[in-house]
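Trying the structure run again after the queue cleared.
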Amino acid sequence: MNEHFNDIFVTTGCPSQQQLLDYVQGRLTPEEQHEVEMHLADCELCSEALEGLAAIKDKQKIPGWLSEMKWELLKKLRKRSHTRRKPEIYLYLTLIIVCIIFLLLALFWGYHFAIQHR
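Done. Tokens:
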């Protein structure tokens, strides 16, 4: 997978997605829970993410929803990156076609002048 589409929690000091889910579901040890709470005091992004996770009533479905949202986001990012490349492709294609036309015209004129000078 492209390195631009990695999970945002991998390169930060933030708790992992699984740790946040375990925190919401009450599966962390008291020490782990304390670590997450200390982080939440300083990190607005994680605090808001946790607030959103806590608002969901059926917490068992959260991992599936997160996975689905992640794949949808990846699809949109890939689509966006592919649409940016299209103008470049059309530019190169146009340049190639123009070069071929000039080459054909040069060959035609060269052939035409060679026949007239015989």
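The two ends are 64 Å apart (CA to CA). Worth checking whether this holds up in the mutant runs.
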